Records
---
Amino acid sequence: MIDGDVVVALDVGGTGMKCALIRPDGVVVHAERHPTDAGRGADAVVGTILAVADGLAGKARADGLTPTALGIVVPGVVDEARGVAVWSANVGFRDVPLRDLASARLGLPTALGHDVRAGGLAEARIGAGRDAEHVLFVAIGTGIAAAHVVAGSAATGAHGAAGELGHILVRPAGPICGCGRPGCLETIASASAVARRYAELTADPESTDRSDATPDGRSADLPDTGRTMVTAAEVAARAAAGEELATRVWREAVEALADGLATGQALFDVETIVLGGGLAQAGAGLFDPLRAALRDRLTFHREPRLVAAALGDEAGCLGAALLALDQLEKR
Amino acid sequence: MIDGDVVVALDVGGTGMKCALIRPDGVVVHAERHPTDAGRGADAVVGTILAVADGLAGKARADGLTPTALGIVVPGVVDEARGVAVWSANVGFRDVPLRDLASARLGLPTALGHDVRAGGLAEARIGAGRDAEHVLFVAIGTGIAAAHVVAGSAATGAHGAAGELGHILVRPAGPICGCGRPGCLETIASASAVARRYAELTADPESTDRSDATPDGRSADLPDTGRTMVTAAEVAARAAAGEELATRVWREAVEALADGLATGQALFDVETIVLGGGLAQAGAGLFDPLRAALRDRLTFHREPRLVAAALGDEAGCLGAALLALDQLEKR
C-alpha cells in the first residue's frame, strides 16, 4: 500500500448504484450515488457502469490519488471466476462479461462480485462478524439471500448461485414463491412478504393461517382497496404495540425465519449470523423473538451469535472494494 | 513420496472399525476390520483404536514399508482443528483428544477427522465426484449426513458440526426426530425411517399420510406383532414391483429427499451430488424418481449431477488416509 492509493468500488442495484473511492485501510474518501435506470436495458446500464467507474478513476487522479483496482458487484447470478454477470432479474443482465469490459475501459485490475456475497464479505471482515472465522450473512429485504463466509472468503458455488437462503423450503403447504415453488422462506419472512401478508389479513382477517394452509393455498390477490400497503417495519411496530393481526404476521415471519436459520446452522455451523437488509432494522422487535425461536430449534447444534449488520447499505460497496484489493493481492 | 511409504488409516464406526495401510497413490496394501464394541465405554474404545493403529504401523514395518502418518475418522461432532472427538452418540466419545493421544502413542503425524466428511472428501477427490470442484456428498443410512467439499477440502464448520443435512426441516407437521424437533429430513428419508414407516403402515394402512400430518403427529409406537421389520431396500424393491403401501412410503421418502437436496443446492450450488450409504444402493429405483423430483424443485438453480457413491463402505477409510497425507503436506 502506497499513500494515496485507492480502489474504485461500485455496488449496482436494481434502482441505484452506490459508488466510492476507498483506501486500502477501508476509509471511504469519496462517495457518490447514481440511478441505475434499469428500464433502459442491459447495454445502457453497462454503459453507465463503465462511465461512472471511469469518472471515479479520473476524479481520484484529479485529487492526486492513484486508482489501483476496480471492484464491481451486481445482483443475480454472478460467475466471479469468469467475471460474468450471468443473470439478473432486476438489472436485466444476461451473460455480460462485465469484468473484462471494465478492465479494458479503465486499464485497471478488476473484480466482479455478487452484491450479497460482497456485503457478507464486508460484514464478516470489517463489520458485525469481524471476530468470527465462520459467518453467515443474511440480507432480508424484498427477498432473502445469504452469504457464507469462512476465513474472509465468501462461498460462490459452482455456478455463482450459492447462498439462496430465500428459496429453501420451510412451509410445504405455504404460498407460491416468485420462483414457482411453494413455501420458500422468502414467501413468509421477507420484508415484502410481511407487508403483503398483513395487507391480506387486514382485508380479510379470516384468511387461513399459513402454517396450516392447503398445498394449493396461493396468496390471494389483494382486493383493490385503494389503501397504501403498510410496510414490514410498521407491521413490526404494530406487533410490538400488541396489535393482533400484526402480531400474528410477525410471529409467522419470525418462526419461518428461525426455521431457515436453523437449517443454515445445521449445514454451515457458523459462529455468527449477521442479519442485514431492511427487516433487520426492526431491532429488538426482531432479534429478541428470533433468538428465542432459533434457540428452540437448535438441539445438538451450537447456537450461533445472532447480530445486526454494522455497515448498513454501504456493505456491498465496501465488499466491492475488498474484492478489488483481493484482486491486487493475487497478482 | 518414497517407494514403500504408507499411511495408517482407521474409520471408527459404532459397530466396527475399518482399518488399512494405504499408499500415497491410494492403493490399499493391507486392510483389516475390528469390532468397536462401544458398550465397553469410550476409554476402552480409545485403547482399541490406539492398539490397532500401533499394530498396523508395526505390520507395515514388518513388511518393509514405512508408515509416515496416521488418519483416524470417527462419527459425531469432531473438531478437526484441535484434533478432538467432541461428541458421539454411538461410540460414546466426549471431548477425547484422540489426535494427540494417537500421535503420542505412534510417534507419527496424525489427523483426526469426521467419518462422513472424510467419506465425502474421498468421493470428491478420487470417487464419484472426482471430475467436479464443488461436491455435496450425502450419506443415507440410519441417519442422513452430508459433506460439502470444495476444491478437495470438506467444510467442517466452526465447531466441527457442519453438514447435518439429516436435521434440516422439510415437514413442519412431520414426525418428531431423535434430535427432538419435528420434521427433520431423516425422519422421512433415512433408511430406518423408510423401514419404520412401512412397518407402521403395514400394521395400520389407515395411518395418516405424513405430508398432511398434524403438528403433534408423532410416529406411533409400533404394535408388537412379532414380525421382523422389512428393510428400506426391500421397501424399494416392493415399490418397484408396484406394491401400494411400499410405493407410498418410497414416494414420501423420495419427495422429502428431493426437498432436502433442493435446499442443499440452493445454499451450496454444487456441480455434483454424490449419494452414498445403504439407501443409495437402491439404484435406479431411487435415482430415477429422485432425479425427476429434484428437477421439479429446481427453478433458477442449476441442476447438479446426481450420482451414486463409487467407493462403497471404504470411503471413510480412504478419506482418513487422505487426511493423513494432507497432514504430511502441511508440514
---
Amino acid sequence: MELWYTQPQTDNIRFSIKVKEELFSGKSPYQQINIFDSDEMGRFLIIDGIVMLTSKDEFIYHDMIVHVPMATNPDVKKVLVIGGGDGGTVRELTRYAGIEKIDMVEIDRMVVEACQKYLPLTASKLNDKRVQLHFENGMEFVRRSKEKYDLIIVDSTDPIGPGEGLFTMEFYKCCFNLLSEDGILVNQCESPFYEKNAKEMRKAVKKIKSLFPISKVYQYNMPTYPSGHWLFGFASKKYDPIKDFKPEKWEALGLETKYYNTDVHIGSFMLPTYVRKMVENPE
Amino acid sequence: MELWYTQPQTDNIRFSIKVKEELFSGKSPYQQINIFDSDEMGRFLIIDGIVMLTSKDEFIYHDMIVHVPMATNPDVKKVLVIGGGDGGTVRELTRYAGIEKIDMVEIDRMVVEACQKYLPLTASKLNDKRVQLHFENGMEFVRRSKEKYDLIIVDSTDPIGPGEGLFTMEFYKCCFNLLSEDGILVNQCESPFYEKNAKEMRKAVKKIKSLFPISKVYQYNMPTYPSGHWLFGFASKKYDPIKDFKPEKWEALGLETKYYNTDVHIGSFMLPTYVRKMVENPE
Amino acid sequence: MELWYTQPQTDNIRFSIKVKEELFSGKSPYQQINIFDSDEMGRFLIIDGIVMLTSKDEFIYHDMIVHVPMATNPDVKKVLVIGGGDGGTVRELTRYAGIEKIDMVEIDRMVVEACQKYLPLTASKLNDKRVQLHFENGMEFVRRSKEKYDLIIVDSTDPIGPGEGLFTMEFYKCCFNLLSEDGILVNQCESPFYEKNAKEMRKAVKKIKSLFPISKVYQYNMPTYPSGHWLFGFASKKYDPIKDFKPEKWEALGLETKYYNTDVHIGSFMLPTYVRKMVENPE
Amino acid sequence: MELWYTQPQTDNIRFSIKVKEELFSGKSPYQQINIFDSDEMGRFLIIDGIVMLTSKDEFIYHDMIVHVPMATNPDVKKVLVIGGGDGGTVRELTRYAGIEKIDMVEIDRMVVEACQKYLPLTASKLNDKRVQLHFENGMEFVRRSKEKYDLIIVDSTDPIGPGEGLFTMEFYKCCFNLLSEDGILVNQCESPFYEKNAKEMRKAVKKIKSLFPISKVYQYNMPTYPSGHWLFGFASKKYDPIKDFKPEKWEALGLETKYYNTDVHIGSFMLPTYVRKMVENPE
C-alpha cells in the first residue's frame, strides 16, 4: 500500500518517507501533530507537516544537542530545556549523574503525551525525578523566571508557529540573564544550505553574537532534515567549546554514544568555508 | 508546470527535485544519461536514474575528493582519475600548478560530451593540456597500464552497472601496483546511513584495508546524495592524512575553496562513533 | 501536513489522494485493509493498496451494479451478493421492498467490521433482516449452495488475491447453475482503457459469453478507478437489459438515485466503438 | 529514471504520468507549453501545467467534439474552430468531404508549431487547403468577423489564462451572431465531478442556455482529464442533437471512428441524475 509522507523541504525539493501506519493524529491549540510508523525510519514525529524526529536518526540530534555542551562543562548542575517535547534531550541529560535539576518548558502538552505513548524510547526519561515539566510558553517562562541555570538548551521547531518567539532578541536576552556566570546556551540553529534555512540561521547567529562573549556554531549530519547539514549554536559567558574542552573528563564518565565522541566534538566546529563565512558575517 | 525528478534513495525514501526543463536525454552503450535544469539545484546530471551531481552542491564533492589528498601531499605530479566524466574532479586538479599529468579514464564518451555541452562550469577544464582522456573501461586500463601515479582518484558511480568493477579486489590491487611509493588512493565510498549504502561501504573499506598500510575514511555533507552523509576512502602506502598533513603548505598555494579548508580536512576524519565502528570492523 | 495515498494505476500512472487521517489499518488473513479520511473524497477504503471505494463516488458504482439489473427485472426476490464487504451493494438492494432475501458471501470479516465502524453510510444496511452474511470463500459457497437466485451480483476486487477465483470459468458455471430460469448475473468487469484491465475484462467477457444466451457489458464513469471508464458485465438466461427494459415499472418505485436513471440505463449499454469491438471479439 | 509529470487535478488530487523524455519546452507570450513522451500515454501536450492531450486518448476528445455536431447536421459547410491549436479537431473535420471551409483561430502560434513538429498524427491536417489559420485572440476574431458559420467549435483550455475570454457572455453572443440559421455551437464544457470544474461548467451552461433555443450537454470519458467524466456543450438555433439526429445519414459517410458511433451519440446525452440537475439548474 503506497502511503507517503512528504515534506516539501523547499518549494522545489520534496523528501518522502513511505508510511506503514499512522499512529497518532491530533490538533492541539498550537500545532498539528502526527506520528507515523515506517519500515525505513521506524516511528517518526511530524509537527505542522515538518519532520521533528525519526527513530532512526534522532540519536544524532540528541547526542549533539546535549553532549557537546556537557562535555565542555561536565559540572553542569541545573539545566533548562525549552521545547524538546519529544523527551530526547532530557533522556540524554538524565544520563549525567551530576545534573541535579532539569526544568523543561514545552508549550504543548499534547506533544509530550503523544510521544510518551508512541515514542517511548525517546520520551522514556521525562519521569526522571530531577525533571520538572512546565507546560507553558518558553518566552514567558524565561521572562518570568528568577532561577539560574548552568545550561539552557533551546530545542525548538523552526521559527514559524509556536517556535517563532524562541528566535527573538528578547528571548536570547532573557536566556543570557538566566545563565550562571559560566552558563552555556545551545540552540537549534537551522542549516546553511537551502536559502530559507540559511537566512534564519544568520539571523539567530547575529543576535546571539551580539549578546555573548563566546558564540560559535557547530554542525551535525541529520539525514531527515533538509540538506542533512544542520547546525546548533553554542554561546557562553565563559567556556570555549574547543579551548576549554577536556575530553578526558567526559571520557571518564563512560557514557556510550552512537554519534557523539570527543573527536566528533572537535570536528563539529570545523565548518566548511561557506558556512564559516555566513557565521562570521551573519548579515 | 509540475515535472519532478525522483530518486528512490531506498525502497522507502524518495528525494524529488522540481524540474524546469530537460536539457539532455541519451542512452549510451553503458547507461542512461539525463541532464535537467531546476530552480533549486541549477542543472543536474542523472545517470541510470541516480543523482550524480547538481550545480548547487557539486563543489562539496569535488573539493573533498581532490583537496584532501592534494593537501596531504601537495607534491603530487601524476594523477589518474577513474570515472569522473563530468569533469569536476579534473577541474579542481588543474588548479594545482605542480600537477604535470592527469590521465582520466572514463568508460562513457557520451557523459563527457553531454557535460561539456550542458555543464560547462563543471567540465570546463577537460581540455587542459595536462589532461589526457581515455575512453575505456577503468578496470582494463589499470590492468594494462605500466605508469606510476602519485594519486589515483576513483570518482565512480555506485557499484552497479559500469561502476561495479571499480569496487573489486582486483581493481584495488591494480591501483596499488600503479601507485608510486608515496602514492595515495581516494575512492568514492558510499555512505554509512542507509543499509544498502553502508553494506557497499563496508565491503570497499575491507578490501582496501587488506591492501594498504594506511587506510581511512573521511566524510562530507552532500545534500543531494542519500542521507547527505557521504564518505571517501583514503589509502596510502606512506602518508597519513592527519599525521602528515601540513596545512601551511596547502594554505600557501592560495587556492580559494567554498567547502574545503584545512580545518574541514581534519574534521572530515573525525567520524561519528557508529561510522568509526563500521570502518574498524567492516565485516 | 502532506500525507498522500498513491495508487500506481499502471506502472506509469499514479493517482494520489491527499490524506487527512488514517482511520483504520489492519491485515486480515486475506488482505491488507486501510481506511483513510480526506478532504476531497471523504473517507475511503483501500484493499491491498487499491481504491475500493470513496465516499464521494461510491454512489456511482453502487447505483450501477444494483439498479441496472433491478430495473431490468424489478420482480427479483432472492439475491446473492459475492464480495461487496463494504455493504454498498446491499444498501441499494434493501431499498427494493420486493426483495425477500439477500445472501452476502464475503470472505473477509475484517472488511465488513471496519466498514461498519468507519464507513457507516455505506455499510448501514448490512443488518437489514433480509440480509444473511456468510463469511466464506465465494467460490466455495457457489460450489456448495443448492439455492436458486433471481440475481447474482459479483461485487469483487480485481482478479488478484482473494478476488481471483471470482473470475474463473468454474465460478461462472456455478453462478449459472444457481440462477433461476430468468436469473441475472452482474459482475465487476474491469475497464477497457489500460492494457492490464482490458485483458482481464476480455477474459471475463469471453467466459461469460460462452455460458449465457444473453451477455452484455455496460459502462459507468468512476473517477477514482483507473481511467475512470469502468464496466459491469450483465448476463442472463432470459432478460435483455434493453429489449426487456420497462422504465415505467422502475420509475413507479419512486427510488431517488444520484447517478442512475432510466436514460443512463440505456446509455450505459451504448459502448464506444473500441470497447464494443473488445466485447464482440473478446480474444 | 523516475521523471514524473504531475497535474494537481484539485488541491487534494494528483495525477502523474511517468515521462520518458521531454520533447519540447517553450514559453510563448500566452502560456507555458511542454510536450513529453511516455510509455503509457505516448506523446502528450501540457499547457500551463495541465494535460491538453495525450496520444493515447485524444481520439476520444476529438471524436466527440466533431462527430456529434457533424452527425446532427452532416450538411455543415463552413466551420469556425476557436482554439484547438493541436490540430485534432481540424483533423476530424477534414474527413468530411462536404465541409468547404474551416477557419481556425488560435491565439498561440507556438502551440501549433510545436504540435506540427512533435505531434504530427494530431496536427497532420492543418495544411488541408480548406483550412485557414488565424493566429489571433478568439474573442477579437468573433467580435470582428462578419462571416456566417454552420458550426462553431470552441476547443479551448480551461477558463484561466488565454482561455478565459472564451467562457464569457460576450463571446457566446458573438458566436450566436456568427452562426447561420441552423448553426450549431459546441464548446469544451469542463466536468461535473470536482467542485471547481463543476462551477465553471454551470456558469458556461447558464450563459449558453440564456442565448440559444436549444442547449444541451453531452458527456464522454476522458481518462487523462480530472475525474475522467468530461462534458461538451451543444447549442443550436434549430437542431436538437437527438430529435434531429439521422444516424443513417452519418453511417452512409462510412467514416471509421474509434470512440464515436451513432449509439454513443445518443448515450452521451443520457446524463447521470446529478449532472442532469446541474444542467437544468445551472445556478
